[in-house]
Amino acid sequence: MFRQAKWDEPLIFELSKPGRVGFTLPEPIEDIEVQVPEDLRRKSLELPEVSEPEVVKHYARLSEMNYGVDSGIYPLGSCTMKYNPKINEEFANHPKVAFIHPYQDPRTVQGALQIMWELEQWLKEITGMDRFTLQPAAGANGEFTGVMIIRAYHLDRGEAQRNEIIVPDSAHGTNPASAAMAGFKVIEIPSNEQGMVDLEALENAVSEKTAGIMLTNPNTLGIFEEDILEIAKIVHKAGGLLYYDGANLNGILGKIRPGDMGFDVVHINLHKTFSTPHGGGGPGAGPVGVKKHLMDYLPVPLVEFDGEKYYLNYDLPKSIGKVKEFYGNFAVLVRALTYLKIMGRDGLREVAEIAVLNANYLTQKLKGTRGYELPHKELRKHEVVFSAEPMRKEMGVKALDVAKRLLDFGLHAPTIYFPLIVHEALMIEPTETVSKEELDAYVEALKRISEEAYTNPEIVKSAPHNTAVRRVDDVLAAKKPIITWRMYKELKKKGEVEY
Amino acid sequence: MGKHYIPNSAHKEEMLREIGFKSIEDLFSDVPKGFVKEFNLPEGKSEYEVFLEMNEIVNKNKTVLEMPTFLGAGAYFHYVPAHVKYLIERSEFITSYTPYQAEISQGMLQALFEYQSLIGELVGLEIVNASMYDWGTALGEAARMAARVKKKNKFVVPKHIHPERNMVLKTFVEGADIEIEYVKWNEKGQMDLEELKEKAKNAAGVYVELPNFFGIIEEQIKEIGEIAHENDALFVVGVDPTILGIIEAPGSLGADIVVGEASFLGSALNFGGPRAGIFATKNEKALIRQMPGRIIGMTRDAEGKRAFVMTLQTREQHIRRAKATSNICSNEALVAVAAAIHLASLGPKGLKKLGEIILKNTAYFKKRLSEVAEIPFDAINFKDVPATFEVPYPIIHERLLERGIHGGFYLKPYFPELDESALLAVTETTRREWIDELVKNIREIINEAEL
Fold first, then answer.
1. Which of B389, B368, B390, B388 is nearest to B377 (CA)?
2. With contacts defined as CB-CB under 8 Å, which chain A residues touch B275?
3. Domain positions in chain A
4. Cβ–Cβ of A283/B334 closer than 8 Å?
5. Which of A40, A277, A346 sits opposite B217 (nearest CB)?
6. Which whole-number Å values give the CA distances from A244 to A148, A267, A287, in the listed order?
7. CA-based nearest residue to A249, from A421, A117, A126
């Protein structure tokens, strides 16, 4: 049985002892007196006073109360939590990468520009696109870039009336949010009973107002949109463009290209498909690729190679501008290129094949277990969505409870309650980097939870039992927000918190 | 290649058989015919071969450790204590994701709560999110938020806003039909208040940077805030957090929203990324409801013990979809944690001292620069110093580079009225010898050019 570390670790502020310091600074070059105007001068600053060993122990202990891909299986659906190769880190932290300034003369950063240029060549071939920007910091930042490009394209053609973006009801929440940020009206269309885009609904949704459609393929159910060519035809015929959300690229990597399916714009997540670590929520990177007809609208600058040297090209008069400072999350790009060089053509194909094998293996092994059902088609790509609806109906045990109980076995939960079209959804994406034994253990745990749900539901409903803390009260967190130390102190003083 | 990352490569047949499939192709039978193709990519390589290849590539870079470099302009060479990198590379932190499952992710949640708390102390505001992508995107979000809160569509910024940030801002507001108005600078290189009074009419927000793009401390920051408030606009302040040990918290100077760059603490230059945007606001419902980004809150667990969890999520894309306050999902959590660890290590005295060192080094640098250039503005500088040269700056840049010194950021392409000016910067890492070398060489270059 799993037991997570349970340190009663205070806040760093509560460790503070006046007089302690955690770092020694150099002295100024000359002790020149500079007078900051009195009313702007800092009056007080309450930061913790702690020494270096205390800082290290504090955060080392906190890390022990955290679970990462290196701790065990982490099958969060649509997040592609694959193993993060350690060689990637060596180069991301290399002094020749860490100590270069973004405004350095291009002649002094040829290595950095080469990394970006080479990465772009890989991504172009993998997706079937003609050009890439590496600037977006994450998937959603990439989506925003992509829809802004779609917007610029239609405006440039004098089609300002194209102000609608279509998204299926199974789409990631970022899709409609990104489209709305770019000023589009979002038209949601239902999925059919097989979990795919309903062609009739799509036909009815397109018009002279259609700017484009945002799709994930394989979709969020892990199902390959078999009618993709028909979808592309309908949207293109109406004058719209196809946007590919690359969150699920792992399911087709090295085998099938979005560009060949008719997509005009693609974003990919280097932190998902290309093995860069997720960092507890970021940094990631969300490069965006486009077909030729959209190249003029890409953010500035692009990286060019003239056969001898690499340089930054800002000369794009129709560019949408910038979506992020400088050139994106460069250290993440370094990791992704390192990974790509190791994997190569053969390795990338193996990634998709084993990712799909693992997901289907888990699907077949779990299928038929009491309390879980498998809506939609059986054949999946990189992920599968089960429903815990029967368990909820029969025993009052919800997907949330199943997720929490999984933690007790030292297994990370799947994504839950998403996609929204599946009730009590358990969205499982094992990735290619887990072993057969880990898959078997995961299925065993889900089966055991099913058994518990029907014999001793309390143990599931009161889970987790073995983690650093017990079930967290998120309702209270929203009702009585405590967001910072200064809010906490205030409430504590008034006697309004006991924790 | 790369099979060493893929354990089940060794068990394909066995696994396929167990689930009743004949071949891998069967698993892709739903893909239309002709879609699956051979990619034109290099074959995989061994880790050692890639190690050599990547080494060769990165070694083509010349770092700021190898040539005295006077670039700032929004990215600064600070020394980050070694233990910061050591701690954020702890695999439980770096290989985790957004803490959706709070109970098993308390470490990251508490670390992010501490980040929010440390930034809250620094900027003097109660509500801080767990990071945006960078300063520029945080500013873009702030402009959008101001427009939603005030239901007006004008956002006022200084003409001397960082050009990079300005470009990001413009892209972010385009879809929201927000108009950006620019206020000129005065003879001290600071926002012109007379023009601001005009332009602030009907504004949703007024923005100022601390220090501003010229490295200058805007001395009338309080007045700018008052003008914003007189016009029922939100006062948005963009900060370099390393100045906040010596400058009053923007929250105490009237700021309603504070944005800024957290990666100036805890991160290396990294060619400009990853970074992390600071986003903070006041503890007011109307503002919190419109906040972008993930927010970590303190609460308790089923046994009454203190615990942390992502909270106030009804603002976010996974719940509100098209009506969300922002589309942000992944943020820059690890960069934020690095900033927190660096800040905690500095403590109040360290941050104050850091600010003082930079202020003194900048003053010294300005004095030395004035031997070979004209300093266009009489003001207090922090890190960046604009300098106007008698000879075209590209010539100086070129000749300096030949001598193994990297000059500053050429201003003319963005601010033609500043003529042959460049922005040169120092920090606590700058050495006296570097400045001596720079000044000596610029003097020689100017003399040569004038011959």
1. B388
2. 325, 329
3. 12-64, 87-342
4. yes
5. A40
6. 14, 6, 12
7. A126
Find out whether B232 and B250 touch, Cβ atoms under 8 Å: no
Q: In what side-by-side order are the strands of the sheet with A288-290? A: A131-133, A288-290, A265-268, A241-246, A210-215, A164-168, A185-189
| Amino acid letter, residue B196 | L
The pLDDT tens digits for B42-92 are 999 999 999 999 999 999 999 999 999 999 999 999 999 999 999 999 999
The Cβ-side half-sphere exposure at B368, using a 13 Å CA radius, reads 23
Mean pLDDT of A139-152: 98
Q: Do B83 and A56 touch (CB under 8 A)?
A: yes
- What is the CATH topology of the domain spanning B82-342? Aspartate Aminotransferase; domain 2 (3.40.640)
Q: What's the N-to-C CA distance of chain B in angstroms?
A: 62
* Chain A CB contacts of B97 below 8 Å: 74, 76, 79, 81, 278, 280-281
Whether the link from the prior residue into A457 is cis, omega within 30° of 0, is no
CB of A140 within 8 A of CB of B317?
A: yes
Contact (CB<8Å) A104/B126: no
Measuring CA to CA, which residue among A393, A415, A394 is closest to residue A403? A415
Q: Where are the domains of chain B?
A: 82-342, 347-450
Asked whether residue B451 carries a pLDDT value surpassing 90, the answer given is: no
In this structure, CATH architecture of domain B347-450:
Alpha-Beta Complex (3.90)
Q: Check residue B33 and give its pLDDT.
A: 85
Residue B425 CA to residue B361 CA, distance in Å, equals 10
Q: Which two tokens stand for residue A34?
A: 């500079």
Using alpha carbons, list the distances in angstroms from residue A191 to A167, A171, A420, A421, A487.
10, 10, 11, 8, 45
CA distance linking residue A274 with residue A338, whole number of Å: 9
Which residue of B lies nearest to A4 if distances are taken between CA atoms?
B104
ipTM of the complex: 0.98
Q: Give the CA-trace dihedral at A209, A212, A215, A217, to 10 degrees.
A: 130
What per-residue string of b and e applies to A284-310 under the rule 16 or more CB within 10 Å gives b?
bbbbbbbbeebbbbbbbbbbeeeeeeb
CATH of domain A87-342: 3.40.640.10
- pTM, to two decimals: 0.98
* A302-305 and A310-313 strand pairing: antiparallel
Distances (CA, A) of B98 to A211, A336, B109, B155: 32, 20, 9, 32
Specify burial of residue A80 (Cβ count, 10 A radius: 0-12, 13-18, 19+).
Answer: buried
> Is the preceding peptide bond at B211 cis, omega within 30 degrees of 0?
yes
Report the residue from A105, A377, A469 with minimal CB separation from B406: A105
Interface with A, mutate which of B117, B164, B296 (most A CBs under 10 A): B117
The kind and range of the H/E element at A141 are helix A139-156
For A300-352, how does the pLDDT look when each residue is reduced to its tens digit (9 = 90+)? 999 999 999 999 999 999 999 999 999 999 999 999 999 999 999 999 999 99
Return the pLDDT at A270: 98
Asked if B5 and A432 come within 8 Å (Cβ–Cβ), the reply is yes
